[in-house]
């Protein structure tokens, strides 16, 4: 029995530049903390190795502290052997990066910098396909087919896009034949580059990143426990949760006559989870002005609970009637201004930006009117 953990795309040192500094620091730390979590999973499931299928580091020139601290974390888990293969972000021609890794690596860490068989155990051989540049433009796993491995189980490790598989979000380092595992007689093909966990065939898997770094992938981050019996049977692959920070993109589509605040609150995660959640709310549909104001107030009240919170109200249209405008004023200048803004917010001859500006101004006018009652 060969048992190992398959993971990839840790992107240690990722800057997360679009977030505030306190959030960036928390996201970077979560990725660093994925290493001891992977080690803990290996220990709990008696896995002898952890295979990292590329992009352990986010760039070819990470800070020396990022490299050293990663190696220290791996070295502390001395019951397991770590195998680090370059990806497209930390490709094998990043000379200084891999020189430092090779120089400082503890005994239980082995970088896989060349495409040659690596003896994983007495009964299994690892075939790595490390990218030598960011976009090789060819199938780096082609050599697997003719690799000599004796009677041992053949395990492939690669980083890139399966043929016709869209990996545009992560940049795609190479194109890998979808049937490579069958062609090369692999007991298992471990893949990196796609940040969501995905099975490609009976023996080919993208592990996904152990921590999310965007809102694209719906499934929770996880690593894979792989067990190969060595009797020709398919591998047993078990998904093991690893993520600590939740990225949630929540759509809220309003129809104009519903309780917008109640609909929003129904989307919220439990209070105990919000401090480790990035919550991206996208509101569409139509709402009456008073409902919009109530919704904006509810959003403002909940926002501080989250690690990060953003709301996009640009797709929310307006439904107006006289009763709504009466909440501002029945006569006078405020009422006149509200009527003008209501007409502009609903005027399809105006640009989307002009209608949105009018709607925002009208919402502010409602908020002001309600505060002065």
Strand order of the largest sheet: 4-3-2-1-13-14
CATH architecture of the largest domain: 4-Layer Sandwich
CATH topology of the largest domain: Purple Acid Phosphatase, chain A, domain 2
Total domain modules: 2
Q: Which residues form runs of ≥5 with pLDDT under 50?
A: 167-172
Which structural class matches the secondary elements?
alpha/beta
- Taking all Cα atoms into account, the compactness measure Rg is 26 Å
Output the number of helix runs: 9
What is the CA–CA distance across the termini? Answer: 74 Å
Relative helix content: 25-40%
Major sheet summary line: 6 strands, mixed
The CATH homologous superfamily name of the largest domain equals Metallo-dependent phosphatases
Strand content: 25-35%
C-alpha geometry: elongated
Instruction: Please trace the helix and strand order, writing H or E for each element.
Output: EHEHEHEEEEEEHEEEEEEHEHEHHH
Specify the CATH class of the largest domain: Alpha Beta
Mean pLDDT: 90
Q: How many E-type strands?
A: 17
